[in-house]
Write a structure and sequence with these properties.
The structure is a single chain. This protein is globular. Helix content is about 80%, strand content about 0%. It has about 280 residues and is mainly α. The chain contains 12 helices and no strands. The chain has a domain of about 190 residues: Orthogonal Bundle (MetI-like fold).
Length: about 280
């Protein structure tokens, strides 16, 4: 195939790919303003309306599920960021030690394990713990959070380990030569440099927890229904226009989060670059 023919193949393929991904989302956003109760039929006789957003804000079931999902997602992301960072540091800095292969396998296993297997195994674990030691007392927020941390921390560990693999150890060695203690070196040198990776892991863990359905269904109990579970139950009974409004708000929140994190990471990257230039100028 000549170069003139291949010149339009890649842009066309990209256009079809992006259209396949984003046109349904745009259609969902447009239909959230539909005046008709039929989700897939546009009411051309009446003007667009915001009544479904109003109905959504007065739906106590969805609001409570959204508040619960948000609380679980924040707890999960924070716990996964702490534990995943520790695992990433161990795998990246401690070299070859006894049990490294096992730790590495246990870290990467949740990434490839089917969610059905993970959810079922965690359910059996929680039932066995309750029967043996009385904790956790039933299934609820605690079991969902623990289950989400179990698979989310693996993503954080992989991201932090990848960041540390290209880390310049000379910065830490120079700080220790100047008399800084290891904890000070970690707090003043290592942590700021790997913070973008930790933040990326936190955001990814938050998104995975917010979006999870399969594992949550296994470890949830009465009174702990998350937002994805509510949406799935409504879809099975028939989609209503307020679900389009809910999904539109979720897309908006995710978009704002991505934009905010991108701006924050760019700001920190510019700050690090400026500090390096000042250090080079001082030398």
């Amino acid at each position: 195939m000549s170069r003139s023919r291949t010149a339009w193949v890649v842009p066309t393929a990209l256009a079809f790919g992006f259209a396949f991904l984003y046109v349904p989302i745009l259609a969902m956003v447009v239909f959230s303003f539909n005046n008709s109760r039929l989700v897939t039929v546009w009411d051309a006789e009446n003007s667009p309306t915001l009544k479904w957003y109003g109905a959504l804000l007065h739906n106590q079931q969805i609001l409570e599920a959204a508040e619960l999902s948000l609380r679980i997602a924040v707890l999960n992301a924070t716990g996964a960021a702490v534990l995943g960072t520790m695992v990433g540091l161990v795998l990246a800095r401690f070299g070859q030690f006894r049990g490294r292969t096992l730790l590495s396998a246990l870290t990467t296993a949740p990434l490839v394990m089917p969610e059905v297997i993970t959810g079922l195994s965690l359910l059996l674990l929680f039932v066995a713990l309750e029967q043996s030691i009385g904790w956790p007392a039933g299934r609820g927020v605690t079991t969902i959070t623990i289950a989400h941390i179990t698979f989310s921390m693996s993503y954080v560990a992989v991201i932090v380990q990848s960041r540390l693999s290209g880390f310049d150890d000379a910065l830490e060695e120079a700080a220790m030569d100047l008399g800084a203690r290891p904890l000070t070196v970690f707090r003043r040198i290592t942590l700021p440099l790997i913070f973008p990776a930790i933040l990326s892991g936190w955001l990814l863990s938050f998104t995975l927890s917010w979006d999870d359905l399969v594992i949550s269904q296994f470890v949830a109990g009465p009174g702990s229904t998350t937002l994805p579970m509510i949406i799935f139950s409504k879809v099975r009974l028939g989609v209503t226009p307020d679900i389009n409004a809910l999904a539109t708000l979720m897309v908006l929140v995710v978009a704002l989060g991505v934009i905010g994190s991108t701006l924050l990471l760019q700001r920190q990257q510019k700050r690090l670059l400026r500090d390096q230039q000042l250090a080079a100028a001082g030398d």
